[in-house]
Amino acid sequence: MNGQPSSEETTSVHRRMIGPYVPVRRLGEGGMGIVYLAHDRAGRQVAVKVMRPELAAQEEFRGRFRKEAEAAKRVARFCTAPLLDAGLDGEQAYLVTEYVEGPDLSSVVEAQGPMGGSNLDALAVGVATALSAIHRAGVVHRDLKPSNILLAPVGPRVIDFGIAQLADTLAERTGAVIGTPSYMAPERARGETVTAAADVFAWGCVVAYAGTGRPPFGRGAAAEVLYRVTNHVPDLKGLDERLRPLVERALDKDPGRRPSSQELLDRLLGREEVAVEAATRIVSEAWTSPNPSSVATRAEPVSRALRAAKPSRRLWSGVIAVSVVLAAAAVVAALQFGGDGGATTPEGPVATAAKQFKGTPLQVTVDSATRHGTSVNLRLSVKVTGTEQRWWPRDLFGEDASEINLVAPDGTAKYPPAGKDDVCVCGPVPAQWFESGDTVSLWASYTGVPDGMDTAGVDVPGFGLITDVPISEG
């Protein structure tokens, strides 16, 4: 709905008023109408979307327009471009949102290649936060896609959520399917009832696109893409393994098995019932805004296979600055996602150990130990290696990974996981049975680790010390 205009979009427009708003220039055009940068009565910049005149002339559309506008106004302004006003002015129907300065996600990925590190994590959290706010207002976006996500200096902002049901009027009139096939949930392709679960599916597609540079169901003719959406597994090759398990859940063909937008947010930040206010603040503190000049000029992309960006130090300093327990957990939780199978670094695991625990053969794999200043973030996984075995991980670890310590190479210092107000900055241990071949993924964050310490021991309860684990720079 707004963002960085192209050279063709900066041409001045005729100064005819749109309600009380004065258009300045055209920003873009979509299936529902034209978007303008405009000024309100106080001279503030806003984005005004004018609906197509053939739609605005229909009484059914005008009725839906009023209803949808009232619903959209209830959406809290967290990681969204909030709807400020809506009006019917003669033959014009228009929506007014906050103007967001910044390129859209598709422009950034096409110009600069896939996102990685802290910005990819912040994008995943930010879009989940926006969906949570949208869904709490009883609204379904229905057309979440990269071009509807603007990358502002303070973080990603989701737009165009105020025309959810309005698209149905156009679909009924023209017989067209409204939406972008590469980001459309299977139930939409089948003509079934659309719920908030369709937005969660689109979230998975968006995160996969941002992290790999391609839609998970490919491109091409609409019919071909929709066939893959409904029948094929997503292509997630190259997606950060920390995010992949949650993206796979979001892309489940069955909407009933997908997490809700709030569950996405809780899983991403490792807490229950995360408030959208807190999540928005974390994203804003963590976000490193893309370089708009390189997007505007469509600079030649570098090799996408080599472009996974390292997490910026700004993420860690920004998130740590938030003085709440949630922010302390988010230092690592926003980067660590338990799932089916242990995640590994591109170079593979850095250390392993095998041992029996109460007769059950287990293998511990240290997947990575990554330094950010004097903080070290540890990821490891424990696999049930015996046949016909069952294991209850909390027998060994308790409720979390708080007993996994880092040990200095000479054994003179031990570093327990960081904590705040007696809450461990570490991953929870699932309360479930694991069968043969199953793996549980764990993580913990440690502070005050000296800069010169390039290796460490990992003291795992029930296994003892795993020595000479290399610590890499994040």
Automatic annotation (TrEMBL):
ATP binds at residue 49. The chain crosses the membrane at residues 315-337. Gene3D superfamilies: Phosphorylase Kinase, domain 1, Transferase(Phosphotransferase) domain 1. One of its GO terms (molecular function) is protein serine/threonine kinase activity. Keywords: ATP-binding, Kinase, Membrane, Nucleotide-binding, Transferase, Transmembrane, Transmembrane helix. It comes from the Bacteria. It holds the Pfam family Pkinase. PROSITE patterns: PROTEIN_KINASE_ATP (PS00107), PROTEIN_KINASE_DOM (PS50011), PROTEIN_KINASE_ST (PS00108). The keyword RNA-binding does not apply. Residues 21-269 form the Protein kinase domain. The keyword Mitochondrion does not apply. This is Protein kinase domain-containing protein. The lineage of its organism: Bacteria, Bacillati, Actinomycetota, Actinomycetes, Streptosporangiales.
